[in-house]
Specification:
ATP binding, alpha/beta, ParA/MinD_ATPase, Rossmann fold, eight-stranded mixed beta sheet, binds magnesium ion, binds adenosine-5'-diphosphate, FlhG, ATP hydrolysis activity
Length: 296
Amino acid sequence: MHDQATALRKMAIQKNPAHKGSLRVIAVTSGKGGVGKTNFTVNIALALIDMGYRVIILDGDLGLANVDIACGVTPHFTLEHLLSGEKTIEEILVYGPKGLGILPGGSGVQDLANIERANLENVIRNLGRLEGLTDILIIDTGAGLGHTVTNFLKAADDIILLTTPEPTALTDAYGMLKALSSDDPEDPEDPEDKKIKVNVVVNRVAQETDARLTFERLENAVHKFLHGSVSLLGWVYEDPSVGKAIMNQEPLAIAYPTSSAYRCIQWIAGSVSGLYLAPPRKAAGIRGFLTQLLRR
Ligand SMILES: Nc1ncnc2c1ncn2[C@@H]1O[C@H](COP(=O)(O)OP(=O)(O)O)[C@@H](O)[C@H]1O
Ligand SMILES: [Mg+2]
């Protein structure tokens, strides 16, 4: 029954002209670490798969190979092997639950923004094949204000900024928005660059009002001090199932599909699916993403 519904949704997506051609690149980020990015990324990916999309995560969290641990898979190669020409995209991709694709970044993520000319063509050819392998590429950017992170964010079609209601997380989220809106001079050829739209998710809230208050604080600061715009994409409740799932190296979507946290993430996936039907900011798929990334 479930499989049939999934198959029907897949057909609907394939028939929908909005899905033709380019894949959508979504970057998930936060000001500081530990706010729940990796958990959110893995589970929204699984929720989107249940809706009929093919999804691959690019694990850009340096050092800690978070995404594969959360999914209980062991990759052998990373983006570094692709950049050096030793491996193809198909050889570094690993598959987790529900057919979720995982591209382990390793230190290759940092290098992606600075590929040498000699390797460029090979890398673009390999990453270009992602277009045929997935509908949505979600990048778990890792935290912090490094140039790699902001470059990824600016090149992506959609940005999801995760924060918790904690003042420190909020301050760092604001810092991230500030870096995004001031980091780069405006590009006259790309008027949309001037106004980067950021979708905010408030994680670990006790109730809806916590999420709304947290978002209002961020929004007020943005309106006072920055250009750009933020919108509240959704919130996720504080839920002990999240910690339990992580301990067992099994995604929440599999271990506790009826938990309140996962139901929030499913609801957000619905909105993200709506974003998919809106015109993307760059509209140029993986090649557009790479062009943007390399131009920075
Ligand atoms: N909604 C939530 N409810 C309870 N605990 C959460 C929730 N989201 C995240 N956590 C906890 O926060 C910790 C950090 O999550 P993680 O996804 O690794 O963060 P990040 O990738 O941002 O560093 C996890 O160990 C998890 O137990
Ligand atoms: Mg992480």
